[in-house]
Amino acid sequence: xxxxxxxxxxxxxxxxxxxxxxxxxxxxxxxxxxxxxxxxxxxxxxxxxxxxxxxxxxxxxxxxxxxxxxxxxxxxxxxxxxxxxxxxxxxxxxxxxxxxxxxxxxxxxxxxxxxxxxxxxxxxxxxxxxxxxxxxxxxxxxxxxxxxxxxxxxxxxxxxxxxxxxxxxxxxxxxxxxxxxxxxxxxxxxxxxxxxxxxxxxxxxxxxxxxxxxxxxxxxxxxxxxxxxxxxxxxxxxxxxxxxx
Length: 245
Prior knowledge:
Layout: H1 2-26, E1 35-38, E2 44-46, H2 47-60, E3 65-68, E4 72-74, E5 79-87, H3 89-93, E6 100-107, E7 110-118, E8 123-128, E9 134-137, E10 144-145, E11 155-158, H4 164-172, E12 177-178, H5 183-188, E13 195-199, H6 204-213, E14 219-222, E15 225-229, H7 232-243
Parallel strand pairs: 3-5, 11-12, 11-13
Antiparallel strand pairs: 1-2, 3-4, 5-6, 6-7, 7-8, 8-9, 9-10, 13-15, 14-15
Helix pairs in contact: 1-2
């Protein structure tokens, strides 16, 4: 039963992301960036957020219950999806090409599978419990292993502008970074980047799927700090920088 649910979750995620990508890239209207309400996650929900969320609801309900950043809880059952329909809405509004969708499938509140999709280029990352993470494309759904990029030159530091003291230390240590502004995407791109740092309020919509996918990587997580890297030595160095040790 678990395997069947996971396969249904993955298939539904792919189809929903394909439809949402089409909405975002070619079917938007002039009203889509209007603020409609405050969502469950505490941020302003745009009309485009709500439209994207409805697409996911159409694909996931009633097979799964959902807990979504915009609407909150919907549906019932032991299998629940933690959903962020558009991770990086501010980037979308600003026509900055770095935004995606994040979905974590839980069985009795334990995550058993997760998907994070880059809705700009169609890259989709996923992992099933007990297995290695994989990657595919929305236009070519044949999966291949998600591997570490040992040649990476830059890391990712989300919300870096709030932590100028840490920026100074990273620069002194020649640890270059970017701050693209979509936490779920940035977590899975820890495989491609040299490292990923996030400091801030950990909302389940932002981090649950991404953390599950990168679970095998060296990681530090405590309070409002997440650090993900390719190796333990760099992890300890970044931990000392971020925590001021």
